[in-house]
Fold 3-dehydroquinate dehydratase.
Amino acid sequence: MSTHNRVEVLHGVNLDQLGRRDPAHYGSLTFEQLQYRIEEFGRELGLSLRFFQTNHEGEFVEHLHEIRDTADGIVLNPGAWTHYSYAIRDALELTELPAVEVHLSDVQAREAFRRHSVITDICVATVSGRGVDGYRDALNRLSEELQG
Ligand code: DQA
């Protein structure tokens, strides 16, 4: 197993409301069930995962400040912040860690404002529209990056 296996899985604003959000976009799993599935994906890949969710942008930024030395990589779904938070982009860049962006829904196929992400170009990959399985894809991609 790689020693570079510490992955932070970060969920942004409103992701804690999964299970109550539009199932056509986000499926029917609750946030707890989603985390459980991600934990399983991580185990399959030999990754050590830590989870964080907040609805407060500043807390998300501060968490990014703190993980620089305790994580090897990041999987993040910042929710709506994806589309406009330069503060989160700057903090993500500051970590200097490889990151994979994930969206449960197909952001390219929805409203125009969701088509733009302010973090895509600083992430090693983006996975969108694959639902829960998108997190497996993202962890896989990150795992390759950490071993490479
Ligand atoms: C989301 C897509 C965003 O546009 C939206 O604001 C979310 C969730 C997704 O996982 O599909 O909250 O990031």
Notes: The domain at 6-147 is CATH 3.40.50.9100 (Rossmann fold). The mean pLDDT is 96. The first strand starts at residue 6 and ends at 11.
